[in-house]
Write a structure and sequence with these properties.
The protein is mainly α and 256 residues long. It has eleven helices and no strands. The chain has a single domain, classed as Heme Oxygenase, Chain A. It has helices spanning 17-31, 37-43, 49-74, 80-94, 102-112, 117-122, 128-143, 146-151, 159-173, 183-206, 210-239. Helix 3 (49-74) packs antiparallel against helix 5, helix 3 (49-74) runs antiparallel to helix 11 (210-239) and helix 5 (102-112) runs antiparallel to helix 10 (183-206). It catalyses: 6-(2-amino-2-carboxyethyl)-7,8-dioxo-1,2,3,4,7,8-hexahydroquinoline-2,4-dicarboxylate + 3 O2 = pyrroloquinoline quinone + 2 H2O2 + 2 H2O + H(+). InterPro entries: Haem_Oase-like_multi-hlx, PqqC, PqqC-like, Thiaminase-2/PQQC.
């Protein structure tokens, strides 16, 4: 009598492709950070310039980490075609040739908000929770199985909506925001869907067991939590009075 293998989920336990897709999208519907109170304040024009500065400065930590996490993923990939496809993500953020890249466009935003560029790139004024959350994401991509690491990028499925809201809301509600400083978000309207479509197709083809599918859904949930906790920290420090930690950016003070 052959040995029964309890460790393998039965084939019938696999989610269908449509069910798998729906499970991923349900995570965004539940917990993508467009639902966070801080973003509602930001997009609705209810923050001061100093609070918007704090958001842009802290978000730089995340922007600057994206090519590092993509490089960490590429270093693990033996499939040359996957490396070639994923490499453009690094170029999108770091730039290549005459294309300045997303990080430079983000610095145009912080420049336009009146922040010293060297201070921003030093990340000295960033909140501790921001730094911890960002590094947790890089570590996740470095350590998780490849298909799960790829899945963690799928918050890009939900990004175009928040970018559209941000562009419209901030241009309408803040006299210190103009088209030039919103260039980062306008470019991502095209880049994010392209990247998300590729990653979604990849995990649909390569998550071959129910545990792998579940781990991919959990990876999207983890990434949403990474984004959410950054806004929790901003809200606690800059919306609720008296909670800015030592060494962090303080609106209205010299921060260079």
């Amino acid at each position: 009598m052959s040995e029964r293998r309890f460790s393998e989920a039965p084939v019938t336990d696999l989610m269908t492709i449509d069910e798998f897709d729906a499970a991923i999208r349900a995570v965004g519907a539940e917990r993508y950070h467009d639902k966070h109170p801080f973003h509602q304040l930001l997009h609705g024009g209810h923050l001061s310039k100093g609070q918007v500065q704090a958001w842009a400065l802290n978000r730089y930590c995340y922007q600057s980490a994206v090519p590092r996490k993509d490089a960490a993923l590429i270093s693990r990939v033996h499939d040359r075609e996957l490396r070639r496809e994923w490499l453009h993500r690094i170029h999108d953020h770091d730039g290549l040739g005459d294309e300045p890249g997303g990080i430079e466009r983000w610095l145009v935003l912080t420049d336009g908000l009146g922040l010293d560029r060297e201070y921003v790139t030093s990340m000295q004024g960033a909140l501790p929770a921001t730094r911890f959350a960002v590094e947790a994401y890089v570590q996740f991509v470095r350590e998780q199985p490849l298909v799960v690491a790829v899945a963690s990028s799928l918050t890009e499925l939900f990004a175009p909506k928040i970018h559209k809201e941000r562009i419209a809301g901030m241009l309408e509600n803040y006299d210190f925001i103009d088209d030039n400083v919103m260039a980062y978000f306008k470019r991502r309207l095209n880049q994010a869907p392209r990247d998300a479509d590729f990653a979604l197709d990849y995990i649909k083809r390569n998550a071959k067991t129910r545990p792998e599918q579940d781990a991919c859904v959990e990876a999207v949930r983890f990434k949403c939590n990474v984004l959410w906790v950054q806004l929790d920290a901003l809200h606690h420090a800059y919306v609720e009075p008296g909670n800015i930690p030592p060494g962090a950016f303080r609106p209205g003070e010299a921060n260079d």
